[in-house]
Design goal:
- The protein is α/β, with parallel strands linked by helices.
- It has a single domain, classed as Alpha-Beta Complex (2-enoyl-CoA Hydratase, Chain A, domain 1).
- The protein contains ten helices and ten strands.
- The termini are far apart.
- 44% of the residues are buried.
- It binds octanoyl-coenzyme A (CO8).
- Octanoyl-coenzyme A binds next to helix 3, strand 7 and helix 5.
Length: 242
């Protein structure tokens, strides 16, 4: 199965709209769909935070994936968000006051990549914002179906940090080094059409581990703290290069 094949598809919005509430989850909606109930369906459901990925949400996604992986009736899994946001990134408010020691010592994000280890095909149905960890979550899936209004981006630089779960690695393989560097260094977003045009297939190497440690290292800087605090306080960040 190829990684990060981007397909522009109007069905993404339909997938995002037609769900029923079930399961004992706080941050996601989970059900089995399709005529034969053989599609595992996970909808990120933190609408007020544009589906920002908090630790609890990612734990629940892992639990739902474990259940679908173990369910012999399920042949594939779909992960989606809302019309406005697939996910606007890792939860900045949750990360704002974390220290380097907490991130590094606790191996922050270690369990967040369960999606990439699922043996069954996982499809991301993306509409709206897929930013930071949201873009990374989509890229962990085997296939991305992107609605016309999907926007992919790695805006971590604007918060004084860097991608932490594959943004510098999978994005490079998905859209090529030049565009990936432009996106990571500017925080600029691309739409579904541009993502599709730029997408090509490459294998994933072991840059992810290094990236995670560098992500942790940004928590040792004042600028990372300032970037996230400025976001929460709704003001422009004043970076000091520290
Ligand atoms: N974390 C926490 N809350 C968020 C986030 C976020 N990432 N994004 C949006 N929200 C909240 C806002 O704070 C706001 O809440 P409130 O109403 O309480 O103030 C609410 O969602 C709505 O947001 P906005 O008012 O800002 O909505 P707009 O339509 O004006 O703007 C944007 C939408 C452009 C998406 C804007 O919200 C934004 O820029 N969000 C931040 C995007 C971002 O920087 N993402 C990267 C985060 S860092 C990261 O992802 C590190 C990755 C680590 C690995 C993860 C592995 C899976």
């Amino acid at each position: 199965m190829s990684k990060t094949c981007v397909t522009v598809c109007a069905t993404a919005s339909r997938l995002g709209q037609q769900f029923m509430c079930c399961g004992n989850y706080e941050h996601i909606l989970v059900e089995k769909r399709g005529e034969k109930k053989n599609v595992g369906f996970i909808q990120l459901n933190r609408p007020k935070a544009l589906n920002a990925l908090c630790d609890g949400l990612m734990k629940e996604v892992g639990q739902a994936l474990d259940a679908f992986e173990a369910d012999g009736d399920v042949g594939a899994v779909v992960i989606t968000g809302s019309e406005k946001a697939f996910a606007a990134g890792a939860d900045i408010k949750e990360m704002q006051n974390r220290t380097f020691q907490e991130c590094y010592g606790g191996n922050f994000l270690a369990h967040w990549n369960r999606v990439s280890t699922v043996k069954k095909p996982v499809i991301a149905a993306v509409n709206g914002f897929a930013l930071g960890g949201g873009c990374e979550l989509a890229m962990m899936c085997d296939i991305i179906y992107a609605g016309e209004k999907a926007q992919f981006g790695q805006p971590e630089i604007l918060l004084g940090t860097i991608p932490g779960s594959g943004g510098t690695q999978r994005l490079t393989r998905a859209v090529g080094k030049s565009l990936a560097m432009e996106m990571v260094l500017t925080g600029d977003r691309i739409g579904a059409q541009e993502a599709k045009q730029s997408a090509f297939e490459l294998t994933l190497a072991e840059g992810n581990r290094l990236e995670k440690r560098l992500f942790h290292a940004t928590f040792a800087t004042d600028d990372r703290k300032e970037g996230m605090t400025a976001f929460v306080e709704k003001r422009k960040a004043s970076f000091q290069d520290n």
